[in-house]
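Practice problem: Pilin
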Amino acid sequence: KKAGVFARAKASIKRSVAVLNTKTARTVFRCVGMPLAVFLASRGVAQADDLMTAGRKDAEETFGEGSTMMYYIMLAEVVLVFLLYLRNHNPATFLFIPVFFVVTTVIFAILNSRAGG
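Answer key — C-alpha cells:
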C-alpha cells in the first residue's frame, strides 16, 4: 500500500532535517559557512544601498495619515460593523466603530514611524 502525498512529503522533510543535523553538516557549517559569512560581512559585501528610497514619498501618500487607503479601510470597517449588526441585531456592535478607528490610526502611526516618515 502506497503512502499518500502528504505522508511522503512529511517523511522527506524528516529525512532532510536528519541529514542537516548530522555531525558532518554541523562541522561543515562551523568550518566553512560561518567564516565565509564573517568574511563577506567584513568586506562590505553584505551592505547595500536602499533601493526603495525613491518610492518612500509615494508610499507615505498612499498609506500615510489622511491617505486614501486609510479612508477606504475605515469605510470598510463601518460596513463590516453594519453587517455584524445585521447578523446579531445588537446595537452595542456600533461601539466597535470608534475602537476600530483608534486601532487603525495607531497601526498606521506605528507603520509610518517605523518607515522613517
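Discussion: The mean pLDDT is 82. Students who identified this feature from the C-alpha cells alone can consider the problem solved.
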